[in-house]
Amino acid sequence: MDQKTLNTLEYPRVLAALAACCQFNPAREMALELQPSADLDDVRQLQKETADTVGLLTLNPGTTIGGARDLRPIVEDAQRGLVLEPDRLLQVKDSLVAARNLKRVFQKDQGEFPTLESISEQLPDSLGLVSLISKVVSDQDEILDTASDKLGQIRRDLRTQHTRLKNRMGQMLKKPEVAKYLQESIITQRNGRYVLPLKAEARTNVPGIVHDQSTSGATIFVEPQVMVEANNKFRKLELDERDEIQRILAELTAKVAEHGPVLQEMVEALTRLDLAFARGRYALELNAFPPTIHPFPKKQGQGHPGVVLRLFGARHPLLDPHQVVAIDVALDKDTYALIITGPNTGGKTVTLKTVGLLVLMAQTGMHIPVSGNSEISLFSNIYADIGDEQSIEQSLSTFSGHITNIIKILKKVDRRSLVILDELGAGTDPQEGAALARSLMSNLLERGITTLVTTHHPDLKAYAHTTPGVINASVEFDLKSLRPTYHLTVGLPGRSNALAIAGRLGLPDEIIQTARGTLDPSDLQADDLLDEIHRQRKLADDTRLSAEKAHQEVEKLRIQLADRIVEVEDERFETLEKIQRESRDKLQSLQNELDSIKEDLEKDQIPEEKIEELEEKAEQVQEEISQPIPKKKRKLDLPIPSGPIQKGDKVYLRSLGKKGNVLSVNGDAVEIRVGNIRVRAQKSDLEHTAPEEITEVEAGHEAVVRTPKDVVSPGMELDLRGQNVDEALENLGFFLDKAFLAGLPWARIIHGIGTGRLRKAVRNILKEHSQVDHFEPGKEGEGGDGVTVVSFLE
C-alpha cells in the first residue's frame, strides 16, 4: 500500500490502538508493522480469526496467552552458549505452561473456533522442560535442593558446618580473654569469612587474620586463628555449591538450546494468537463487525470496474464513539464515483477518511465499526490526496502540492484501486479549477477507477447528475443552530447556504435581497427544490428511526419475557427435583424399615401381612420417583427471524443459548444439530449466524420424529403402571402397531420396577414383535430399569 496514503488516513494511529490491546511483546511489535493485504484468501482468513476471537472473548472474556514471555533473546543466548540464570529459565517454564494451557482451551472447545484451534496446534507440549526446570528452580527464582543429589548433599553439609562454625564463634564471644577486646558482641562476615569485631588496639591480643577495618579505624574485623580451618571448610562447601549450581544451569541451558527451534515456533504461534486476541478486543471495543469482502471481477471491460462499496452505520474509529455521527456510504451497482459537496467543517473530509481507513482496517483483518451487513471490494491499493483546506487563505503552493500528488496517483492507479481526493480543483481560479476537476474525473471514470472526491465547485454537482457511474452526495447543515450535522446524504448534492447563513448572522436584509436578485432564477428554484427534498427525506428518516426504536423496544420486551419463562421453568424443574430427592429419602427409610421387619420376621415377631403392606408402599414410591421430570415446552407467539431458515444455515437457539446447524425445515418446525444431539425448535426461537457446513451425526434416541399425515401418532411414550399384566399387554400391542405405522423411530414403555413381573412380560412381547428392531433399558434420567426404550424397524 502507498505509505503516504497510510499516513494521510491515520492508519498508524489505528495500529497503535491495536498494539495497545496486545499482551505479548512480539505481538505488539507485529501489530505496529502490519500492512493491509491485497490477497483475498489472506484477508478472509484473518477476518475469520478475528470473528472466532470475538466469539471466544464473548463466551470467555478472560482468555489470554497467560504468562508467556518473548523467549527469542533467551533462546539466542542459550544457542550461543551463555548459561541462563534461574529467572530466565523460569520464563521458559512459564511460557511453556501458558502455551500448554492455551492449547487445552481449544482442545476442550474442539471445532468451536477452528482458525484459532489451527494456530494452537503449532504450540508444543512441555518438551520435558517444565518438569526439569520445576525440579531445579523455585517460583522465587531460587535453586532447589532437589536440583541434584550432589547439590542436596553439599547443602546438608553446608548447614551442618555453618551450625558448628557459629557455635564455636559464639563460644569465643563468651570467653573473658576475648570478650574484653570486642567492640561489639556479635559475629559478622567479611569476604565470605566469619569474623569478630575487635577494638583496634587489641590487634595483637587475639591471634588471627585481619580481613577489614571500620571507616574510623576504631574497629578491626579479625578471623580468629583457631577458626581458620573451620572457615576454610565452610568456604570450600560454598564454592562446591556454586560450581554444582553452575553445572546444573549449564545442563538446563543446553536443553533449552536443543529445543530452540521449537521454542521459536511457539513464540510465533503465541504471537499470532495474541494478535488475533488483540483484533478481537479492539472489535469489541469499537462494537465492530466483519464486512463481506468481494474480489473484483476477473473479466473487466470498459467503465464500471465491478466495485462493491456499501458501508452502513460507518464510524471513524479514532473519534469519540459517544459523539461521532454514523454515516451510510453505499454505491449502487451502476455507480463507482462519489462527489460530496457541502459547507466547510461539515464532515466531507472525515467521510473520505472514514471510508479509506475502514477499507485499510478490513484488509488488515480487523473488524470495522459498521453495521453487520456492510460489504467492500478488495482493493489492490488506495491513493489519497487529502490536505487541510479548512482555512480562508489559499495559495498557489497548496494547489501545486495537490496537483503533484494527483500526477503521481494517475501514474500508479489501476481498475482495482481506490482514489480519494479532497477539495478537487481547489486552490486556484474557480472557473479553471472546476474545468480541471471535471477533466480529472472524466479521466478516472474512463479508466474504470473507483473514486471518492469532495469539492466546492457547483459545476461538479451537475457533472455528477448527468454522468453515468457518478452520484452526488452531501453533508447537511442546520440553519437554526448554524452548525453542521455531519450526516451524509447520498443521491442529493449539497445546498448553497451562504445567503441563509448570512441572514442568520445578522447581515442586513436589503443586502441579502440584492444578492438574491443577481442570481439566476433557475439556481434559486433548484435550491428551493433541494430544500424540499431534504425536508421530505428527513421526515422519512425520522419515521423510520421511530419505527426501528419501537421494534427494538418490542424485541427487548420479548426477550425479557422469554428469559422469564425459562426462569420459571427452571424453578419448576428444581422444585420437582427436590420433591423427587425427598421421595428417594422416604423410600430409603421404608426399605430400612422393611429390612428391619424382615429380620424380626425371621425371629417370628412380625406377621407376614405387614411385610406385604410395606413392600407395596415401597413399590409405589419407587414407581413415583422412577419417572423422569419432563421439561415443559413453552408456547410463545414469537416473531419469525428475518430471512428464510434453510438447511445448512448456522443458527442460534435462544432457549438453549447454543449454536447449531439446520438439518431440515418443515413449516415452522426446524430440526437442528447442537453438538452431538438433534433438537426440534420453532423458527421464532432462532437467529441467523454465520453459515457453516453441517456435519452429520449418527441418530440415537434424539432422532427427529417424522409422522405421516394419514396416520395419527400415538405419542412417543406408553405408561403401563397400575395395569395388570393382561390389560397392559393388550394396550402394548395396540401401541406398537400404531407407533410403527406412524413412522416413529423409537418409543418409551413405562412399566415401573415393582416386583418385575410386568417388566418381564413386556420385554418378552418385544422380543417376539415383528416390527421391533431392538430394545434396551432406559438410561440414567430416563427412568432406568423402570423404562424400556423400543426401536422400530425402518
What would your notes on this structure say?
The protein is α/β, with parallel strands linked by helices. The protein contains 22 helices and 23 strands. It has a 6-stranded mixed beta sheet with strand order 10-11-12-8-13-14, sandwiched between helices. A 5-stranded antiparallel beta sheet has the order 18-17-16-15-19, with no helix packed on it. Strands 1-2-4-3 form a 4-stranded antiparallel beta sheet. A hairpin with a 5-residue loop joins strand 3 (208-213) and strand 4. The longest helix is centred in the C-terminal third of the chain and has 82 residues, at 521-602. Mean pLDDT is 82; it is low at 389-396, 631-641 and 691-710.
Provide a short characterization of the protein structure:
This protein has 794 residues and is an alpha/beta fold. It contains 22 helices and 23 strands.
